[in-house]
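Mods, move this if it's the wrong board.
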Amino acid sequence: MDEQQLPPDDISEEELRAAYEEQLKRVRVQDVLIQSVVSLLNLGGRKAGLSPGTEDERDPEQVRQAIEGVRALLPIVEPLLGKDAAQIREALSQLQLAYTRIAGGEGADQPGEAPPAAEDQPQTGEGGPAQSSGRLWVPGQ
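Not the wrong board. C-alpha cells:
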C-alpha cells in the first residue's frame, strides 16, 4: 500500500469524504479478505503469547476466535493465494497447537497427560474432527 499522508487540519469534511471515496475505489475485496486472515493470524499468535514479550497477553478465548475467523475465511482466500495458501494453513496449524496448550490448562504439554494416540490423529487426506464438525478440535475433548 502507498504511504498514507495525514490530511491537513484545514481540510473540510466534504474533501475528506471525497478522498476516502477515492481510496475505496482502489481497494479490492480480495485484498481485504487476505489482509483480514493475516491480521487474525498475527493477533491470534500474540494472544497465544507466541511472540517474545507477549506472554502476559495470553487470552485463549481471543485465540479461539482468531482461529475460527481464519477457518471461516480460508475457503474464500485459498484460491486467491495459490501456492502461498500453504503458508496460511501452516500458520493456522501452529496457532491451533498453541491454543491446545493454553486453553483451560489442557493439552499435551500438561504434566501427567499423554499426547493423543496416533490412531486419534487424522490421516493425510482425511478430514479431521475439526473439518467434519465445523469446530476446533482439541485433543482429549
